[in-house]
Amino acid sequence: MSQTVTLSTNEKLSAIAGDFKGKDIVSLDQLSADDLHRVFALAGHMKQLVLDKEPCQLLAGQVISLLFFEPSSRTFGSFASAIKRLGGQTIDIQNPETVSSVKKGETFEDTIRVFEAYSDAIVLRHPQPGAARRAAMCAEFIPIVNAGDGNNEHPTQTILDLYTLYERFGRLDNLTGLLAGDVLNSRTLHSLLRGLSLFENNTIYLLSPEKLRLKREDLALFRSRNLIIHEITSEKDIPRDCQFWYWTRIQKERFDSISEYNDMVAQRFTVTPALLAQYAGQETIVMDPLPRIGTIDTEVDKDTRAVYLRSQIRNGLYTRMALLALVLGRA
Amino acid sequence: MSQTVTLSTNEKLSAIAGDFKGKDIVSLDQLSADDLHRVFALAGHMKQLVLDKEPCQLLAGQVISLLFFEPSSRTFGSFASAIKRLGGQTIDIQNPETVSSVKKGETFEDTIRVFEAYSDAIVLRHPQPGAARRAAMCAEFIPIVNAGDGNNEHPTQTILDLYTLYERFGRLDNLTGLLAGDVLNSRTLHSLLRGLSLFENNTIYLLSPEKLRLKREDLALFRSRNLIIHEITSEKDIPRDCQFWYWTRIQKERFDSISEYNDMVAQRFTVTPALLAQYAGQETIVMDPLPRIGTIDTEVDKDTRAVYLRSQIRNGLYTRMALLALVLGRA
Amino acid sequence: MSQTVTLSTNEKLSAIAGDFKGKDIVSLDQLSADDLHRVFALAGHMKQLVLDKEPCQLLAGQVISLLFFEPSSRTFGSFASAIKRLGGQTIDIQNPETVSSVKKGETFEDTIRVFEAYSDAIVLRHPQPGAARRAAMCAEFIPIVNAGDGNNEHPTQTILDLYTLYERFGRLDNLTGLLAGDVLNSRTLHSLLRGLSLFENNTIYLLSPEKLRLKREDLALFRSRNLIIHEITSEKDIPRDCQFWYWTRIQKERFDSISEYNDMVAQRFTVTPALLAQYAGQETIVMDPLPRIGTIDTEVDKDTRAVYLRSQIRNGLYTRMALLALVLGRA
Lengths: 331, 331, 331
Prior knowledge:
Three copies of one chain form a homotrimer.
Chain A: H1 9-13, H2 33-52, E1 63-68, H3 73-85, E2 89-93, H4 100-103, H5 108-118, E3 121-126, H6 131-138, E4 144-149, H7 155-169, E5 176-180, H8 187-196, E6 203-207, H9 216-224, E7 228-232, E8 244-247, H10 258-264, H11 273-279, E9 285-287, H12 311-327
Parallel strand pairs in A: 1-2, 1-3, 3-4, 5-6, 5-8, 6-7, 8-9
Helix pairs in contact in A: 2-7, 2-12, 3-12, 7-8, 7-12
């Protein structure tokens, strides 16, 4: 009797493979090197558009829900600006307390379908790993863009990190970089490794305390995917020819005692002018996913090699503009 | 000496009577059958406009305050989308904590007059019954649209419910429907009964536990207003020829004990595929004001007769677009 | 090696001196009488634009962050409306809880630089005195507009107050006015005195309890800056020829005991119809920065001399539109 016509959600969630229109962006794994280059090329145009300060109507008439189940003012602001700079409009749900239907007992899936009815796309932030995939499975007609789902994925962060490298060095292969800090647990570092592994001949130095090294199976995986990886435990082993440093925070809770933390980490996993002077090259750029908490001394800010509050944060805007234009079929 | 020129607020709050421009929408009682048909005709155009994905400038230059004194993400999102799809702009006050002037001791009336000065209309959500009328009484120059004032009224909910019936069946008279659940207390059901009573020859089956029947005076009132009402207490008495089922939640707190609730309600006031198979017709549509909490099994979602997450929620957008365009004098 | 090119923030923060474009608006002291007249002239045009209800594109393509570290729904609404009536867009961060990066430990300066990357201007509300200046010091490329930083400054409040006088009387010199209430502590009154002191031959009556008089050094300062000041402690000494009354709240906490408060203040520092009838002139306008809490009886509202819920609040919209258009270089 009653028949249901449903779009295959697998298709929306599948690899981009050159065709962004209508696709969900849930995981970095959906994007190939070619897909990333397409985003980067468009991001370059977006940058010019912002610098020219010309009103743009690319997303005119589009209404996009910013559905934030946990606060994240930076990511929220970046997406909101991206949409509005393209002439689109937003529905802002940024305080978890106001997702009132959920408080009343509505399922997450019902909330997604309700906002699907109001919107041309949903940008979703959620504390639970896998939430973006669940949303993509139930939204039939519009793209879901993952703006971070717990410790699972935050694909637009990695896209902006890769674009920052691409923009500076004109390529994403044959790079040498340092990833430092909590190599074992950092979602951001793992995603960046996955992104870099899509390109040829990249050499990565992983600097961390011994107990925060990459899991052995992850190390094997990334090595099998083109990456040349060196694990180091002392800043003394950072090579001078790194094109980039990417620093992440080490939480005290990772250690059994404060004294172990003090021995292993304190004072040693913070970028200072002295550290830069001793181990960085003239062209080494210093990156940070922000917020930086103990990772980079503010004295480093005025060094032009520090890009975290300059091109890196701005590239988040340009790449999100590009990605939204693509999935909404406007570019 | 000092003289005051004040618009008669009675005029703004009066029956629409064919002229929406500048009127408040506080109560369903302001609208006649003809007024509703005018909204429905325009809602049909709005639906086409949304489906065509063409940017619209009908509310260009209009700034509308969404003044939400209690959270309601669904209603907020629906109004925000309605305004933005018509090219209008919003001032979002959706977190009660941020209505800071009220926290500091400002009267509700002062807050309304302040936001009147900033806006072309105010969409008001408030936990207190009568708040929308109070707002309408003090806003002199712009329309107030009631987006729910406590257990009093939520007129746009009823308008979208009626439109959902109208769109599907091409009429609002000569219908047979089932309203089930907390018939005694549900604001939504009472409003829907009032709406249906504006049209000829509708037959309504009210299904509820004995103790949650309509008040006798309300029953008499609705019967005096054209409605043919049958009260039933068992699903076995649902007639096969219902055009629609409208299900509402029964709260445990309505019963003296959990065992009474379990006897009377549990498992019996939830729509399941089995219930549909046994008692619904081929054309019976299943409605719910959402959030659904225990009222409808998710297994029912894929049945095409289930409209609550499909046309019903989308019709909220189209009818709110229509209503806003009308009170703002743009249609 | 690494070189930094930084705009002189002193230049952005300096006196306006006829050139608003790109300047921060942190303090009233940046504006001369000529600068204020430029704002007022433009505010007049803005008023006409709003009254004509014509869509305006002056800020088309501009994205402005409303960064509110404490709730202030009235100021938020006024700025949001000003931006949107000019065709601009906003990024709304109005709930302090959602400034999540700060919660995570990000410095205020980093947050400002992140939002600078997303925006063409930042409107900042912050509970800490001096926050606006700190923001202006670290935002290199875009203007910061102070929307109130603790008990320090709220320059747009004073600009709207002065414009309200200017609009009504056609001048800001040769006025006689009453400032009443907490003359010792009110930020609003102090700023208004500073504003009025920029113009010639104004006479101000300061009405307060003895213990809430202006500090002697402030009194001397304002007298040295053109103002003719009379301190009074009884309403009986209010002259009939005041062009305006500006009333502010006296908090009970200012007194050692409730009985002292009752003796000194209660019933005496509230504007009532009787007080107006006895001491105000036919042309005296009654102003209040809102929210009014105990300062003005609601019975006064219908008196046409009461402008606080009429022109005064609307002038906040017009002057903010003017100021934003000026600092963004669009007027």
